[in-house]
């Protein structure tokens, strides 16, 4: 306060810039004084031990990702921090349920430890749905007691996305017990409207990030939900949802990336990409930046973050313009972000694979030849469709039929070497030869394999066991490319640029193999997620999500 | 949730009305279903055991007073609840520092008990400044431990207005210790701007209700303060502040009455009067109602109050129009507000007067005849001015001079029978004969007396001792009128209409005695409040508020 009074010099004074007030959503011509990592004053004439010239620049609060899974970046947390801090994201609210599925609650405690010293603020929500449904097989379920233990820790804000929305709506005791653990509960309610939406809200759910249309988002906001506008690799919903902001203002809206792949971060950025797109689409920059910072902090009840005002943490961006939103400089707690030292990864985090070996026979499907249920992949959406198709047959065997774009899909349990394999068919993929597989397969992260050749499928799955998890492509009986993800089978220990280079090359390879699906690895990674409609596949079999039950491959 | 799903009938369905969504600030044509006192659904087609026809009506959330002192209504809490519920106020955030000054912390615990069963929701802030300054003499100071004890109780939201803003800005340990007790701290910063405002905010203060100009309120909001627009009997700031809403939107703004006299409530209403005025001045009704409900709940971190949405408490108003805002019906927790039984008052609350008897000589002032400091009362403001005037003399005595509108003012200590009397002069009052006195004299609530006749002043003060406190008028050597306020010397046990009738008659009597000051009892009750500039009087003497020190009557 002595600094604010002008009696002592500040640690740093940012001079000459235009500062965003998120409280009036306008630019103030004022200096900003920092002491002990916090803004202590906004006004003229402050002196500091250091001075930062922000003439002709805009100064905005650091951006906050309101809902995301770090694991989807495929980067270790230190490298993730380097990547997004450069884009102006200074805090994220992470649901670590990928780690929790693979490593149990110990994985979440490890994440909290691994992020404790980062200049990126990593808030955590206690994962609520491990497994996401009874149809998935994680290493072990996350128990109510374990959630409560997490909620007692620093930086844990509330209960993470309640993905089992049918269970909540039905009033299932287990789900309501989770909701009762905290006052702040994130939702996950794709397509939910009307009475079911009312019931979900009456249970105490506060936010949603799954709206895909303006009308759906508007209904949710009218009923009191915080709307987390999403721009994920597999679900680019931002432009569709922006009318909500343009017609009803930015209140109760913030931005989230949910699941964003490395290429998206490298090529377009992070939350700053959402600000850029929103402004390009006609949202006022002041509104877009406020949604990207303060509104996210408010939505999660994070005090003293997301604004340039006395008492707030001095996380801020120096911007050259209000078009590009790539920061010239990022300050975290009042200091320019410097080099981030590597965070060590313990051996147990690096040895998560435990799959039984498979052979080509493991992927054989037999049947009568009647109509089968086929998963129709939808580009850039997490939703899938269901088609009912007459399968190609080979005697009693039902086989892939690349000519009709029917590929085989399988999920191999990989936590307890049970040898369990769920099998089915998918379309709108385009694969003409070989197979590809990944241990990134939401949410249980068993091995998901797509292929038109059973031997190549087996080759992929077995190779993943050898390299500690990752992504591989095989054709003609040999592995063609691979990206190891040894950290829980989810994250690389390589730099972002290298991860991006390899994934890009592998996507190009899939293109050569006929794949027409954009972002195929991300798209495929959601085909095992049994809580997003319509038809999914887990190691337990095909899941009819709207009716929340396992269904046989053959119809009727 | 079964009701929200439509599987079970609601307790009540409000049908056919237009419902305010505070989240989009628009009207929805929808039914509203209530179960267990909460809104469980908003939408079409719900069935209930009871139905309320709201056709052609507007349905809004119950109004919330964001900062107030119940004691200023001069009503016992049950009668206050009857009065404001009828106007649509369903919750108040009360700082009970008047009771705390008179009764100690026991008075606050009593208030919590006395309001526990009311259909009006009474939230409490832990009074932070008892006494308001070292220049005032309450029964006993409220200690840090007592504040912490209060903060542990249900319905206590945070630390009440930190009136000792100079102490906070100076970084005094005692004041910072109070701020450290809670995350949510109300401010009180009349006229505070620039560096001092920055320092006050850096200490962690969250709100302010003392702004009197648009520019001041704008500066405070830009820096992150919640702006509680005030419309008190002694400080009608609303119209002056409305440009903040019209130019910058309703975010971070809400309404408060602070200190509102009975006549104001009877004649104009409560928070609904502020909504009415705001709308008449051009604010959108949706914005005004949102400020009057949801925004106040957000500002105080009150969950599940102030909105018509699933999970929110079913406090709501049925309105016939968007002009008058006098509700046709008020529902609290989903039920029409019925008769409120009387709340008993214990004997110790009724016996707070302990003043030493005074005589005319107690009010004699002697001096040299040099310039004296005179309190200039400012109509409809809590601020006063200071004038320096040559006094009228009578030998060594300095006397009142009605011809020049110079009246005597005195404050008689009344908690510990110390016999201490602070004396001075005031102008812009108009009194031509006699005297009047009150035990409502913020914040210590000692006896404040204004008069042009020392004997009448003594008569008034002694009479207040006899009736347990209240307001009296004397002239020509006898008591002319009185309103007993036996509850802590602050509140009546009569109905609002009777309190209003008596006060109106007494104000008329003062008018006959020459008084030109509007709302004279309220105005006078702030002349002893040593934390609002410029010049005030306590039992300890004249207080120069900007310099925060006692000053002698005579200049230099």
Please outline what is shown here.
The structure is a homodimer of 556-residue chains. Chain A has 556 residues and is α/β, with parallel strands linked by helices.
**Oligomeric composition of the shown chains:** homodimer
Overall geometry of chain A comes to globular
Strand order of the largest sheet of chain A: 22-21-26-25-28-27-29-30
Radius of gyration of chain A: 24 Å
Task: Name the pair of protein chains with the most residues at their interface, and give those residue counts.
Answer: A-B, 47 and 48 residues
- Between the first and last Cα atoms of chain A, what is the distance in angstroms? 73 Å
Instruction: Estimate the strand proportion of chain A.
Output: 25-35%
Structural class call of chain A reads alpha/beta
Task: Note the total helix count of chain A.
Answer: 17
Low-confidence stretches of chain A: none
Q: Total strand count of chain A, please?
A: 33
Give the overall average pLDDT of chain A: 96
The largest sheet of chain A, given as strand count, sense and whether it forms a barrel, is: 8 strands, mixed
Question: What percentage of residues of chain A falls in helices of 4 or more residues?
Answer: 25-40%
């Amino acid at each position: 306060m002595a600094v604010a009074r002008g009696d002592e010099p500040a640690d740093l004074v940012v001079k000459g810039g235009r500062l965003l007030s998120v409280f009036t959503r306008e630019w103030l011509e004022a200096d900003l004084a920092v002491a002990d990592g916090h803004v202590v004053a906004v006004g003229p004439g402050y002196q500091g031990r250091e001075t930062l010239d922000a003439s002709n620049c805009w100064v905005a609060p650091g951006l906050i990702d309101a809902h995301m899974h770090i694991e989807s970046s495929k980067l270790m947390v230190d490298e993730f921090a380097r990547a997004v801090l450069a884009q102006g994201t200074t805090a994220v609210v992470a649901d670590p349920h990928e780690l929790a599925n693979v490593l149990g609650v110990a994985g979440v405690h490890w994440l909290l430890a691994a992020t404790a010293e980062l200049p990126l603020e990593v808030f955590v929500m206690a994962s609520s749905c491990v497994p996401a449904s009874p149809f998935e097989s994680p290493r072990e379920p996350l128990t109510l007691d374990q959630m409560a233990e997490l909620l007692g820790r620093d930086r844990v804000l509330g209960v993470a996305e309640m993905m089992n929305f049918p269970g909540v709506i039905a009033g299932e005791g287990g789900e309501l017990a989770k909701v009762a653990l905290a006052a702040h509960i994130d939702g996950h309610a794709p397509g939910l409207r009307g009475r079911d939406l009312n019931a979900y809200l009456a249970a105490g759910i506060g936010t949603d990030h799954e709206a895909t249309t303006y009308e759906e988002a508007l209904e949710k906001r009218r009923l009191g939900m915080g709307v987390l506008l999403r721009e994920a690799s597999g679900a680019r919903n931002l432009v569709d949802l922006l009318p909500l902001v343009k017609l009803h203002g930015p209140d109760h809206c913030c931005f989230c990336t949910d699941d964003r792949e490395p290429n998206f971060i490298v090529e377009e950025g992070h939350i700053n990409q959402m600000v850029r797109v929103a402004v390009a689409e006609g949202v006022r920059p002041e509104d877009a930046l406020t949604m990207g910072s303060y509104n996210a902090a408010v939505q999660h009840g994070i005090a003293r973050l997301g604004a340039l005002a006395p008492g707030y943490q001095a996380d801020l961006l120096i911007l050259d313009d209000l078009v590009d939103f790539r920061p010239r400089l990022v300050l975290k707690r009042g200091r320019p972000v410097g080099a981030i030292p590597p965070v060590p990864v313990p051996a147990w985090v690096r040895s998560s694979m435990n799959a039984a070996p498979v052979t080509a026979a493991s992927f054989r499907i037999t049947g009568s030849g009647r109509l089968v249920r086929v998963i129709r992949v939808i580009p850039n959406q997490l939703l899938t469709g269901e088609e009912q198709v007459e399968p190609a047959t080979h005697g009693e065997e039902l086989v892939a039929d690349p000519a009709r774009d029917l590929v085989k899909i399988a999920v191999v349990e990989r936590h307890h070497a049970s040898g369990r394999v769920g099998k089915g068919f998918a379309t709108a993929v385009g694969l003409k030869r070989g197979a590809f597989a990944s241990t990134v397969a939401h949410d249980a992260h068993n091995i998901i394999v797509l292929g038109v050749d059973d031997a190549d499928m087996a080759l992929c799955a077995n190779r993943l066991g050898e390299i500690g998890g990752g992504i591989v492509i095989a054709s003609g009986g040999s592995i063609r490319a691979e990206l190891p993800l040894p950290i829980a089978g989810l994250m690389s220990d390589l730099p972002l640029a290298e991860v991006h280079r390899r994934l890009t090359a592998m996507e190009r390879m899939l293109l050569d193999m006929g794949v027409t699906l954009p972002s195929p690895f991300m798209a495929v990674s959601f085909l095992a997620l049994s809580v997003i409609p319509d038809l999914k596949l887990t190691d337990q079999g095909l899941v009819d999500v709207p009716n929340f039950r396992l269904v046989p491959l053959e119809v009727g």
